[in-house]
Amino acid sequence: MNNVIQYRRVKCKNAISKSTLPGLDYTINPYLGCEHGCIYCYVPDVLRNKEFQNGWGTIVYAKENIVEALLKQIRAVRPGVIGYSTVTDPYQPFERRMCFARKIIETLLRYRFRISFQTKSSLILRDIDIISGENVEVGFTITSLDKEFTKKFEPNASLPEERVQALETFSEKGVKTWIFYGPIIYGFNDNDENIHNLVNLAKKTRSHILYDKLRLKPIVSNRIKKVLGEEVFEDIKRGDLEKHFRKAYYKVIKLGKEYDVKVEPAFK
Ligand code: SF4
Q1: Number of domains composing the chain
Q2: How far apart are CA 25 and CA 69, in angstroms?
């Protein structure tokens, strides 16, 4: 995808929000929109914003006062586990310019928050010197080790080998790591070889695996049709999607048991 990205700056009132996501007390999202532009991303549906729904991946708002807002808010918030980030990728390309992460991480750790990172970007390696200790964990979404798959479905995220290398680096440093294998897309990333590679990688890096299914919400279906074409869409939704998904996750669980890798659904 060669879309021109529109970068904008906005102000925010609060930096931290309460979270209802499993395992998280709070979230912090320094950006709105995500340049990674994953075709299956259902965040635009969650945000209910026409601009994002029509141009997901091409508009990114940076909350330019996020660090100041965090400093103002943090004393009034009881420390807990904070998801960094949940409706965007904290290390998408705009972060190279905005450089929010270091100040946010230092502030959260100083105030005894535990940070759970989730990213598809190797840019997180830039901050590896401060991402350490028991109060951090780093999750990499690795849907496939096949770069043709990722170029198609995650056009502007780091290549799989870059994510693998970043995951290995954090693991070698002793940071708790995990792999997000989701969404599982029938006929594209649910093959035995891919599952085997992911479980192997989890074993090697002492990571656990969270898996998730594809949610074919109308916005996602339309984007798949628009970007990848009707034929790809028809291939994906062929047959009973729930059944295909269950087949794939049984394989992950079975292999996880064999390799002594913890495997869990992302959403119970
Ligand atoms: S990296 Fe995450 S938030 Fe960004 S487009 Fe992909 S799925 Fe959506």
Answers
A1: 1
A2: 18
Domain interval for residue 86 = 6-258
- Tens-place pLDDT, residues 179-196: 999 999 999 999 999 999
Closest atom of ligand 1 relative to the 119 alpha carbon: 1
What's the pTM value of the predicted model, to 2 decimals?
A: 0.96
Domain presence at residue 182? yes
> Helix, strand or coil for residue 173?
coil
Q: Are strands 208-213 and 176-184 parallel, antiparallel or unpaired?
A: parallel
**Pair 56, 22: CB distance under 8 Å:** no
- Residue 266 belongs to a domain: no
Helices within the chain (DSSP H only): 43-47, 50-55, 66-73, 94-98, 101-110, 147-153, 160-172, 192-204, 218-223, 230-236, 241-259
Q: What is the CATH number of the domain that holds 140?
A: 3.20.20.70
CA–CA separation, 252 and 184 (whole Å): 11
Provide the token pair at 22: 């499993």
How close is the Cα of 75 to the center of ligand 1, in Å? 30
Extract the tokens encoding 243. Answer: 């059944």
| Residue 1, domain member (yes or no) | no
Is the minimum distance from the CB of 252 to ligand 1 under 6 angstroms?
no
Q: Whole-angstrom Cα distance, residue 240 to residue 180?
A: 23
Residue nearest to atom 8 of ligand 1 (CA): 41
Residue bearing the CA closest to ligand 1, atom 3: 88
Residue 166 located in a structural domain = yes
Q: Is the pLDDT of residue 80 over 90?
A: yes
- Give distance in angstroms: CA of 215 to centre of ligand 1: 14
CB burial string 235-245: b at 16+ within 10 A, e below: ebbeeebeebb
193-215 pLDDT tens trace: 999 999 999 999 999 999 999 99
